[in-house]
Design goal:
This protein has about 120 residues and is mainly α. It is built from 6 helices and 2 strands; from the N terminus they run βααβαααα.
Length: about 120
Amino acid sequence: RRLCGHCRSPMEKLPDSVMKEEGLTEELIDIPQQEWQLFQANGCSKCSRGYKGRVGVYEVVRITPKISHIIMEGGNSLDIAKQALAEGFYNLRTAALRKVAMGLTSLEEANRITKD
């Protein structure tokens, strides 16, 4: 869900330990931290509980020669995921956290859709 542009409000800075625990690290997100702005949902007459519309969160993996080799050798999804991360592809959690860092959705929403 996309945060409402009319009523979203900036979050207070989270402690570094919480940021790291959630996965919000500059290395993982690959966006300079000074460009981040975390927001939270509030709710107004123009939205539904702080959200209006949708924003896509995708895990896209191109079949590279190394990934193709893993597939052809009968590798499992864990092997493919490990190679994809090594090649710089984002998993679903990282993709969601990038949307949080960009201010498009909330950390609460990212956790709702990507945490167990």
